[in-house]
Amino acid sequence: METRVALIGIIVENVDSAEPLNVILHEYGQYIIGRMGIPYRKRDISILSIAVDAPQDVISTLSGRIGQLKGVSAKTAYSNIISKE
User: Fold this and answer.
1) Residue 61, C-beta contacts closer than 8 angstroms, at least 6 positions apart
2) Residue 85 forms part of a structural domain
3) What CATH number has the domain bearing residue 67?
4) Are the CB atoms for 73 and 24 separated by under 8 Å?
């Protein structure tokens, strides 16, 4: 199986989407290397970065599911290094 390291940048503008977001992230926990969340109270948003090591299709599915949440946007940056496991 080929995997890549990627970083998913997430902006949460709707606080009601925080719980569904955490449920999704929990489902993909085996692929998550680390995560950092910053509440930006001045703008009433949260900014998250999620580092993952997973197959390309898993990363795409995860990012897509996150982006479908109301008031949540996600963008993914991929490493060029592909590893075989």
Assistant:
1) none
2) no
3) 3.30.70.1150
4) no
| Boundaries of domain holding 17 | 2-79
pLDDT in tens, 37-84: 999 999 999 999 999 999 999 999 999 999 999 999 999 999 999 898
CB 40 within 8 A of CB 6: no
**Residue 61 located in a structural domain:** yes
Q: Would the pTM of this model clear 0.90, i.e. be above it?
A: yes
Q: How many domains does the chain have?
A: 1
Q: Which long-range contacts (CB under 8 A, 24 or more apart) does 25-33 make?
A: 25/50, 28/52, 28/54, 28/58, 28/62, 31/58, 31/59, 31/62, 33/5
Question: Structure tokens of 83?
Answer: 């590893």
pLDDT tens digits for 1-31? Answer: 899 999 999 999 999 999 999 999 999 999 9
